[in-house]
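#data-curation
PF: Archiving a pair of folding outputs for the training set. Convention for this channel: one message per protein, sequence first, structure tokens after, nothing in between. First:
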Amino acid sequence: MDKAALAGALGAPPVFGQSQFALTRGNAFEARVKADGGAELLRLAHRTLDPGAEPPQRPCVPDLTAQGPDGRTARTALALREAVQAGGWTLLDHPMLALEVAGSPAFLEPDAVVVHPDGSWTVVEIKSFPVLDGSADPAKVGAAARQAAVYVLALEEVAARLDPAPRVRHRMLLVCPKDFSNLPTASAVDIRRQRAATARQLTRLTRLQDIADALPEGVCFSPELPREELTAAVEAVPATYAPECLATCELAFHCRARSRAQGSVTALGRSVRAELGGLSTVEEVLAAAHGEAGDPDDPAVAALRRAAALRAEALELAGREAACR
């Protein structure tokens, strides 16, 4: 389902995303890193990950073009097998991998995969955020590590079908601009923790078929439907909005408007929702704070009434000070 088209049809199109300038800069940096048949990228991989191996002299960069994602996935698997058999350094530029997510195949496209002379595989992520004085933004590095962990899991499935199975390295190669220049620098990032967490999350996902079976009979999410009918179909599916959704989900603005209309406290953030216990709406929270509802022995209700009393005292004091002036 095209969630962006669905959000537009609902009248709440997504507005997040990278700027055109950032995309252009990122593409230009990636092209520089991969220039000359990936010579610079493989030099960085050799120096950072495998200094004991023979230096890359004439690296192989196989053609991975094929018809459709299934064809590209098969072509990538074949190129990986051939690279292991040939030995030496091989660079796979934008390979296509497949990973089962909730019972359905998801197609993934890492920036690159390097095959080492010993036959092992390394995921390469090329990012446009800078490394300043030897360090980068931890949040951005963490996001890149989580992204690479998914690619590692997909590569492990490919490796498991080969005999003998090549080793998929659990350190990714992160390539970023150095300081304020456009010169690439690389570092090895251990992603074993992110890989383990992602693997656990994948096993706990509800299968898509089970989700589809739980939908009301005849529900359809086609953007071609009239807005009223489409809105009713979307509202038939439970959703819990939180402000964090704005950065990741195309339907976030629709869900935010829906959450605000219902007075849901989740619109204030997950941390606020956790502090309020069984109070799920703003109306319930205000009633509890004013002593009109709620169990006084409930810690959340008691805290709200204490906060309301403190607010009233502060307003009274401010009013007296204003009158004295």
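PF: Second:
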Amino acid sequence: MRRKICIVLTTRGNYAKMKSTMRAIEDDPKLELQTVVGGGILLGRYGDYSKYIKRDGFAIAEHVPFLMAGDSLESMAMSAGMATFELSRTFARLRPDIVIVIADRYEALSVAHAAMCMNIAIAHLEGGEISGSIDERIRHAITKLAQVHFPANLEAAERIRRMGEPGCMVIATGTPSLDLLAEVDLDDLSALQEVLEQRGQGCRIDLSENYLVVSQHPVVTENEAVEKQIANTLSAVRSIGMPIVWILPNMDAGERSAATVLAQQGADLHVRVVSSLPMEHYARLLKHSCCLVGNSSSGIRECEYLGVPVVNIGSRQNGRQRGRNVIDVDHDVDAIIWAIKSQLDHGYYESDHLYGDGTAGKRIAEALASISIGLDKRMTY
């Protein structure tokens, strides 16, 4: 019998990470893919990614809405509880052999919790890394719940082993989102230009000209300062005087702050605001930008692979291994301006493979098809 592998997609970034792995699972005769979508990926304001998933040929086994209204810490905690509740019922119906838990968002812990309580083995993607906010605590908690681990690099893999996980269950595969970058024609901007004009709001941006990209997410443990942090970034990029494509954040506590600040202060800027972009378009947008500004992990991962200059602001990526393309600064307007100007002076960097070489999806599927997994775990120290 084929092993049933369930992947729970809750954000646009989840699908970017897992698309190549989903293909590889479907191509493996020993595996059966079960795709579950829920949370923010279902929201209309992000484009309801269900249609993109279906367009790419993947069947969706379950739709699991679990987000509670609001962007407060309370609503986030309630959404996490609802996710555990609904996913438990989903897993009872689908009866997967392995659930893949993606990275470190708050609902990822809900996915792992539900799978653990249902006696389902857990495979964890991108464990072992250090970062800021609550992400690190969630990530390491999932590591201790998971049976098999697919870290993005060797440093993260070694950290998982030092956490007491068996070395044979730790397989450094790289980040599978890079697989898409390796196969996309990054120089074809026609479709991206059309998408920006159809789905974006604000000033029209000509992608043949120099432009900046801003992607800044709220830091949950700094919730009360989010609007001020966004305002400082806006003030800094305004002073640069270049056109800007601003990508709105995922569903987290404080996620509405960027839209609020842009509505109040950004009317005079040359800004195109976009709620979300599929990875293929986002990769093209990054590749042809002069610099990515904000605190997105794409600055650490995808931009490192593409050689795009990055100004990383604040604590969200603290401790995460990064390439030479990143300048780190605090939420200080003058520091952000200096860093952007420094990156504009430098220009593009050489591509690096710190987070993989574009073959992660195939390696993950091969491991899922062959590895022996039991539910019980024991510390190795």
